[in-house]
TrEMBL record, chain A:
It holds the Pfam family BPD_transp_1. SUPFAM superfamilies: MetI-like. Keywords: Cell membrane, Membrane, Transmembrane, Transmembrane helix, Transport. It is found in: Cell membrane. It comes from the Bacteria. This is ABC transporter permease. It is a multi-pass membrane protein. Belongs to the binding-protein-dependent transport system permease family. It comes from Streptomyces albipurpureus. The chain crosses the membrane at residues 25-49, 115-136, 157-179, 199-222, 263-289, 309-335. InterPro entries: BPD_transp_1_N, MetI-like, MetI-like_sf. Residues 115-332 form the ABC transmembrane type-1 domain. Its main location: membrane.
UniProtKB/TrEMBL annotation, chain B:
The lineage of its organism: Bacteria, Bacillati, Actinomycetota, Actinomycetes, Kitasatosporales. This is ABC transporter permease. The chain crosses the membrane at residues 26-48, 68-87, 94-117, 137-162, 206-231, 259-280. It is a multi-pass membrane protein. Belongs to the binding-protein-dependent transport system permease family.
Length: 341, 295, 603
């Protein structure tokens, strides 16, 4: 919640078209600089991880100095640091993120293999919890201070303070293992039972998706709710609402036609930012539910340490955040009716 | 220095602050909960005899269900889970507090400096801040915790270093607002140096904001601590709530149905996190009623 | 995003939600319900590669045993070498030339016959291309020449005698499929399915961290496996795997914790197999890391060079408590180096030699060694520095951490400080000798040559810059003499006697304190698997055998069928539908209540 209040601050925008272009170019430039910075940090951050990957790879096998040298050569670890860096930058720009030490496969390929699973999980979750947060947030704000508002906000805050992995484990116990007379209704983990095709496969995946998505939604919707609620409260002080009411419009109509669209703005921005966040944040839920996505891969890569893979994932995670922030920045002025007016 | 006057004024504003805070019902709930938990955490070593954390002298059998002797049952070493839960409060609170203080400290420093000096220096500083803001904090914290040796301080640093940018931005905005006030002009004209202005005028004015940020930060820090411990990046010799959850999972408590091992640490984490969030939001809305945060 | 929905839309929504809940909470009925008998196994370790030239992880090696054959196999009863791809073998008197006869009744799954040329090509590739030697290069490092004079004869010439010639765990691959491979370090054998092999199973599909599917090889010379399909399914979380077993989603789960085992042993239709393990868990002492050229390196504690101190630490370690408390009885108390499962080689220190748990004696020994303490303080050396050890442990192994906590307390009472240094990756401090003590463990093969060789001087790294095969930098002249004797001793009882003497010597040095032999604790559903062969056949384990016995021999039970992957019972379906209905009712109730609430607002 604290992070968003800072990020979602609307940027001042010129009304003219050229103004928007200039604004867009500025944001684009900023994002590019950030991406380069990520690339650079990605490289150096993971050189300070203690450990000689080649020795880790060969632990327990008799390996001569020459063999170690060959391996180092194979992974380009024998070059001076600056050469490794330039090689890495050159390759990264063409989309080549190197070869994973433990899987002997191109990092890009590994990430591409696991990306759909993560996108499915996080995309569904963000969509659901944004909708839920928007709905509850609007209702809460409209009758703020009332019992329903206090209850909604209280429940959301509590769920938000719950560790997601813990909630996931509890859901597994309750709904996957089964408690008492309640049988295990949902699968305990993974993404598919295997063997199904077509529609049956889709249902099967959806079946596996329920508990992890539920976990993410429960922990995540509070943020949307609070942002929607507070921006609506801000809007409700606005003169135009009083005018609208004075015109004799019904409460519901005022809410639907006037207040909500304005409060929607920060929500849209937040959906994008959340998408960026959640990709990295699903590490825990993916671990608990054995979901075959990027989060699990990241954790696995760190323990070797499989530098190219960790590096590649870091770039993907941070890159996703930057791109999503950029999109939010670019879309915000387009949506703002005060700009279009 | 006109110290008595200043003190009187500060006492005044504190009283006023408390007066408004008192009206925030949820804020009071949060504060009460925190005071109780804090008192229990501090008193734990006095209330119990012997070292609760000892595995060799553990009083019970492994993974016992709740009973009269062990209200919450025992862990795989036969230690009382209630005792561990109480003891874990000390660690979780300490780590949360230290990490939040570190994070807000860095944020305030960066924010005040960037706000005060302005120019290309501030631009560069805020560029770095923005960049940290888009970094996936958990990923960065995990990497840091992996790089450094397993200890409590590692966790504190990993959390503190990755979570300061929000504070920096808020503090910078506040600093800019404060510095545009006329009395700062006056102070400058009277020959007040950068250090004087920052510490005497800007800092007291951003302090309330910093307080709110710290309170909110603690709940995030406690959650992150639990997360890192759960991923096995904490100090295995230290009893913390996150560590207990990790122990429970490693012992296979989930599938063997030992819910009494799993539930209490999570509830405790959520309770403390909610309490801090409520306090933070109450402070926030006292300072900025337009936010209308909680009520 | 309209928040005010018309009444009709609300009903549609409620109905939609109800249908969705119903669809999702009922277990999906398998599409292909044609009576296929599926054996599914829960695994957690990721496959590092499906190429036998690269794969080093247990799960990949297990799969390779199922789809390719090695020259020899291990007898399911006692683990001695028996025919595999080779039906017979002879060695020259000098033990330098080995001739294998390749069986004629083995075919690749694409129809081509398996010949000696395939085996020769496999070995030659590993010898000539370092990239192909990644996984099993140690087997061929000593090969001089490998030839196939005719399709049924394979000849291997050695540089010096090699004890593992009947235990060459190298999968033989089809030359006609593999000779097209350009770069062995990046070819993972996972692009084209089914993978051409000659083992009891054929790998038909694979998705990283999701599943590995295998079909029985109907033409397998020993006879086809009984299940219609074998699926290794991924559960990264052990609890999730156990939950899946309870529900019948999987048929078999390995690597249970004591709590899981005791909970499952009380569950109907599930059999817990608690078998003596092939691993030992030890506390290794850094004897002063060094290379063969005599250079010393690392930062091992000087006090540990004193045999008295090492003996004191032995005396201060309560192995029985470790077995009882940490393993909760699912382990055997540590004694000699080789686990009791390998009966011919098992050695136990006699009463006079045994170093038991005697803290008093430990204190005495430490006093004698010059590490004295005042009152309850830390022990200090002559220069007044406190006695403190670092213990390297695996952050991912709960047992390491648990035992570490006990050691901290036991040794702490004696005035010895102990710092647990738990890491994900222990290789670096380990290989550079930067540790005082370390948790150590090896899986022992039926032939103990390898696990003994890693404690000889020859296993030390050649220079400080190399990596040796040494486990713990142990280099002891008497141990080496015995090792040399046993490796040329071909009389089995005589050799076993020598191996026992080596263990006795190792015990006396105090460099390696064998704490326990953890059991292999695994469980399977008896309503899906009617019978399965363990190894050794009486009371052995199932997962991670030397050979394909368990999965090849497993017979489906009456209940197997499609249920192996989760056919819902009638009760589950009913209660699922009940829950769905309840959920729908709840949604409807909430909406109804909310409508009433909003009605008040509408004047």
């Amino acid at each position: 919640m604290t992070a968003t209040t800072a990020v979602v601050a609307p940027a001042p925008v010129d009304r003219k078209r050229t103004g928007y272009l200039r604004y867009g170019a500025g944001k684009l430039g900023g994002a590019l600089i950030s991406l380069v910075a990520v690339l650079v940090t990605g490289f150096f951050l993971f050189r300070i991880i203690p450990g000689d990957p080649v020795k880790a790879m060969t632990h327990g096998m008799p390996t001569s100095a020459e063999q170690l040298a060959t391996l180092r050569g194979q992974f380009g670890l024998d070059l001076p640091l600056w050469r490794q860096f330039t090689d890495y930058c050159g390759k990264a720009l063409t989309g080549d993120l190197g070869l994973s030490y433990q899987f002997h496969a191109p990092v890009g390929e590994l990430i591409a293999q696991k990306l759909p699973a993560t996108l499915l999980l996080t995309g569904t979750a963000v969509l659901l919890y944004s909708t839920l947060g928007l709905w509850l947030g609007t209702r809460s704000a409209w009758r703020h201070g009332g019992r329903a508002d206090r209850l909604t906000t209280g429940v959301a805050l509590t769920l938000w303070s719950v560790p997601s992995f813990w909630l996931g484990l509890l859901l597994i116990i309750t709904f996957a293992v089964g408690v008492g007379p309640l049988p295990g209704l949902f699968p305990t983990g993974g993404m598919e039972s295997g063997g199904e095709r077509g529609f049956a496969y889709a249902i099967d995946v959806a079946h596996h998706l329920v508990l992890p998505v539920l976990t993410l939604v429960a922990v995540g919707y509070a943020q949307t709710l609070l942002v929607v609620r507070s921006s609506l409260l801000d809007e409700m002080g606005g003169d135009y609402l009083t005018t609208a009411r004075a015109k004799g419009l019904r409460d519901a109509a005022v809410r639907r036609r006037h207040a909500v669209p304005n409060a929607l703005l920060p929500t849209v921005t937040m959906v994008f930012i959340n998408l960026g966040h959640v990709v990295a944040g699903s590490i825990l839920v993916e671990t608990v539910f054995s979901w075959p996505g990027l989060g699990g891969l990241f954790y696995q890569a760190l323990s070797v340490p499989d530098l190219p893979l960790v590096q590649g994932l870091f770039i993907v995670f941070a890159g996703a955040m930057i791109v999503m922030n950029l999109l939010a920045d670019l879309i915000y002025p387009l949506l703002d009716p005060r700009v279009r007016r | 220095m006109t110290t008595p006057l200043v003190w009187a004024r500060r006492r005044d504003s504190l009283t006023r602050f408390w007066g408004t805070y008192r009206q925030q019902r949820t804020g009071l709930w949060g504060l009460t909960a925190l005071l109780v938990i804090g008192a229990v955490a501090l008193a734990t070593p006095l209330l119990t005899d012997g070292d609760l954390r000892s595995v060799a002298d553990a009083p019970g059998g492994p993974l016992e269900a709740p009973s009269g002797a062990f209200w919450l049952g025992t862990d795989q070493f036969g230690r009382s889970l209630l005792g561990l839960l109480l003891w874990g409060a000390r660690i979780s609170l300490a780590v949360g507090l230290l990490a939040a203080v570190l994070s807000v400290g860095i944020g305030t420093l960066v924010g005040v400096i960037a706000g005060h000096y302005g120019g290309w220096f501030a631009t560069a500083l805020m560029r770095v801040t923005d960049w940290f803001l888009v970094m996936p904090a958990l990923v960065l914290a995990i990497v840091l915790a992996t790089v450094m040796s397993r200890s409590l301080w590692t966790v504190v640093i990993a959390i503190g270093v990755t979570s300061w940018p929000t504070t920096a931005r808020l503090v910078r905005a506040q600093t800019l607002a404060v510095e545009s006030r006329p009395y700062i002009e006056r102070a400058k004209a009277l020959g007040g140096g950068h250090g004087h202005i920052m510490s005497r005028h800007v800092l007291p004015n951003v302090m309330p904001l910093v307080l709110a940020q710290t309170t909110l930060g603690i709940s995030t820090a406690i959650l992150t601590e639990a997360t890192l411990a759960f991923l096995g990046l904490g100090d295995p010799a230290v009893v913390s709530w996150g560590g207990m959850l990790q122990d429970a999972r490693e012992a296979g408590a989930v599938s063997s149905g030992h819910w009494w091992y799993l539930a209490p640490p999570g509830v405790a984490i959520a309770l403390v996190a909610v309490a801090f969030t409520l306090c933070g939001r109450a402070v926030e809305s006292v300072l900025n009623p337009r936010l209308g945060a909680v009520r | 995003m309209a928040t005010e929905l018309s009444a009709r839309m609300r009903h549609t929504l409620a109905f939609g939600v109800a249908v969705l809940v119903a669809a999702l909470s009922a277990q999906p009925v398998r599409a292909a319900d044609d009576g296929e008998r599926v054996l599914s196994v829960a695994v957690s370790q990721s496959v590092d590669s499906l190429s036998p030239f690269l794969a080093q992880r247990l799960v990949a090696i297990t799969v390779h045993r199922l789809i390719y054959e090695n020259l020899t196999n291990y007898d399911v009863r006692d683990g001695r070498a028996i025919p595999g791809l080779a039906t017979a073998w002879t060695s020259s008197p000098s033990k330098l030339i080995w001739t294998y006869t390749i069986r004629s009744n083995s075919r690749w799954s694409d129809g081509e016959p398996v010949t000696a040329e395939d085996a020769a090509w496999t070995f030659n590739t590993m010898m000539s291309d370092p990239r192909a030697a990644t996984a099993n290069g140690s087997f061929t490092a000593n090969f001089r020449k490998v030839t196939a004079p005719d399709p049924r004869t394979l000849v291997i010439e050695l540089k010096k005698p090699q004890a593992t010639m009947l235990a060459l765990d190298v999968p033989i691959v089809p030359k006609h499929q593999w000779e097209k491979v350009r770069n062995f370090s990046s070819f993972n054998n996972d692009q084209k399915f089914p993978i051409v092999g000659n083992g009891p199973f054929i790998l038909t599909d694979f998705q990283v961290d999701r599943f590995i599917r295998l079909r029985p090889n109907k033409d397998f010379w020993r006879g086809a496996p009984h299940f219609d399909e074998l699926v290794l399914t991924y559960y990264k979380d052990g609890d999730a795997a156990v939950a899946a077993l309870r529900k019948g989603e999987v048929s078999f789960v390995p690597g249970l914790t004591p709590a899981q085992a005791s909970a499952l042993s009380r569950t109907e239709r599930i059999k817990v197999n608690d078998a003596p393990g092939r691993r030992f868990l030890a506390l290794a002492t850094n004897p002063g890391a060094r290379s063969q050229d005599g250079q010393r390196f690392g930062s091992g504690h000087r006090a540990l060079l004193d045999p008295g101190v090492r003996k004191a630490l032995f005396h201060a370690t309560d192995r029985r408590t470790i077995v009882e408390k940490v393993f909760r009885g699912h382990a055997v108390e540590g004694a000699g180096y080789i686990p009791p499962r390998f009966t011919p080689y098992f050695w136990k220190p006699p009463a006079g030699q045994r170093i038991g748990y005697e803290p008093g004696k430990a204190a005495e020994l430490l006093d004698q060694a010059g590490y004295r303490r005042k009152g309850n303080g830390k022990r200090r050396d002559k220069n007044g520095r406190p006695l403190e050890f670092r213990v390297l442990c695996h952050a991912t192994d709960p047992n390491d951490k648990a035992i570490g906590r006990y050691l901290q307390e036991w040794w702490g009472r004696l005035g010895i400080g102990l710092q647990l240094d738990c890491r994900d990756n222990v290789s670096d401090p380990w290989l550079s000798g930067d540790y005082d003590l370390a948790f150590d463990g090896w899986s022992v093969s039926p032939d103990p040559d390898f696990v003994l060789s890693i404690h000889t001087c020859a296993a030390l790294p050649a220079t400080a810059r190399d990596t040796g095969s040494t486990d713990n930098f142990i280099c002891d002249r008497r141990f080496d003499e015995l090792y040399a004797k046993q490796s040329v001793e071909y009389d089995a009882p005589q050799r076993a006697e020598l191996v026992k003497k080596m263990q006795s010597r190792l015990y006396d040095t105090g460099y390696l304190n064998i704490l326990a032999y953890p059991n292999a604790v695994e469980a399977y559903r008896t309503d899906q698997i009617a019978s399965i062969t363990t190894m050794p056949e009486s009371g052995g384990n199932i997962w991670g055998q030397d050979g394909y016995w368990s999965w090849w021999s497993a017979k489906p039970a009456a209940g197997a069928g499609a249920g192996a992957s989760g056919q819902p019972s009638a009760a589950a379906v009913l209660s699922g539908m009940g829950t769905a209905l309840a959920g729908a009712a709840l949604v409807a109730a909430v909406i109804g209540w909310r409508r009433r609430a909003t009605a008040d607002d509408r004047e």
